[in-house]
């Protein structure tokens, strides 16, 4: 059992939690909780840490998973030091990062949607980790086949984003791109219609046909889409609002648009 918070492996995990540079350099990220460990593909797992208290209360199935990964027992103090949450669940793992190609994102790699028209999210400078993780989670639920992010967006591998995805991180292909407007134009070359969520939209979001290959552009929480990115889209779409509300939360906008596409595709 590891009992020292100054143990080299413990300090390494803490660095992964706190610093995106360390995660990039070692090509890893950290997940917490048994639910996430059950969902992560086996070949992605590098290290697993668990407390004896968790093992004592674990089901036989969970114990088998922990045994399979050769989980290292740590003290409660060490787990509290390593975990990003206020009340650690008692198990965490260091996991390999994902690396998708542009083609895999456009083709819906991992999604099991062979033959389905692409349904993409294109995210520009999304900063809030909870928003970003929620977009992955609701996107999976709506049938989104891939996510394209600007380099100015939050780090998908930060602990708060990972928690908010609730496991969708393991199934949703994604890429970061240097020039988002150019990427939006490129999607048009692939025959994908691109729709910018924008207050200047002339038509409501439910007046378009999303049964064909579709991508929704969602902008920064405070500033929305940049003009260059929005203007690269096929059309602006408007989410009509009542009252004195001036704008919609980015994750909420994403869910409204993608589930409308999902509704159209079901019918």
Question: Could you describe the 3D structure shown?
Answer:
By secondary structure, the chain is an alpha/beta fold. It is built from twelve helices and ten strands. It has a six-stranded parallel beta sheet, sandwiched between helices. A four-stranded mixed beta sheet has the order 1-4-2-3. Helix 9 links the parallel strand 6 (146-150) and strand 7 (174-177). The radius of gyration is 20 Å and the shape is elongated. The N and C termini lie far apart (56 Å). 40% of the residues are buried.
Write the topology of this structure.
Layout lengths: L7 H11 L1 H7 L1 E5 L1 H6 L5 E7 H6 L2 H9 L3 E3 L1 H7 L8 E6 L5 H6 L11 E5 L5 H14 L3 E5 L8 H7 L8 E4 L2 H10 L3 E5 L16 E5 L8 H5 L3 E3 L12 H17 L1
- Tally the helices: 12
Range of helix content: 25-40%
Order of helices and strands: HHEHEHHEHEHEHEHEHEEHEH
Please report the total strand number as a whole number. 10
* Uncertain segments: none
Give the termini separation: 56 Å
- Based on secondary structure, the structural category is alpha/beta
| Strand residue percentage | 15-25%
Rg from C-alpha positions?
A: 20 Å
What is the general shape?
A: elongated
Q: Largest sheet, order of strands side by side? A: 7-6-5-9-8-10
Major sheet characteristics? 6 strands, parallel
- The pLDDT mean sits at 93
């Amino acid at each position: 059992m590891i009992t020292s918070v100054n143990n080299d492996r413990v300090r390494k995990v803490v660095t992964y939690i706190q610093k995106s540079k360390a995660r990039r350099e070692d090509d890893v990220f950290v997940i917490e909780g048994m639910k996430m460990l059950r969902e992560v593909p086996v070949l992605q797992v590098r290290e697993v840490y668990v407390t004896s208290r968790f093992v004592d209360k674990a089901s036989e199935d969970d114990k088998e998973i922990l045994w399979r990964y050769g989980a290292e027992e740590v003290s409660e103090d060490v787990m509290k030091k390593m975990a990003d949450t206020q009340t650690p669940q008692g198990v965490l793992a260091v996991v390999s990062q994902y690396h998708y190609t542009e083609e895999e994102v456009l083709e819906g790699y991992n999604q099991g949607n062979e033959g389905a028209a692409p349904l993409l999210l294109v995210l520009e400078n999304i900063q809030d980790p909870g928003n970003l993780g929620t977009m992955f989670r609701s996107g999976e639920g709506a049938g989104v086949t891939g996510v394209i992010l600007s380099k100015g967006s939050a780090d998908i591998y930060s602990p708060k984003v990972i928690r908010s995805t609730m496991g969708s991180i393991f199934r949703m292909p994604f890429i970061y791109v240097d020039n988002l407007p150019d990427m939006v134009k490129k999607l048009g070359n692939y025959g994908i219609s691109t729709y910018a969520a924008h207050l200047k939209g002339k038509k409501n979001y439910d007046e378009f046909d999303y049964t064909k290959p579709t991508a929704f552009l969602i902008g920064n929480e405070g500033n929305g889409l940049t003009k260059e990115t929005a203007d690269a889209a096929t059309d602006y779409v408007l989410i009509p609002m009542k009252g004195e509300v001036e704008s919609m939360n980015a994750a909420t906008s994403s869910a409204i648009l993608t589930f409308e596409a999902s509704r159209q595709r079901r019918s």
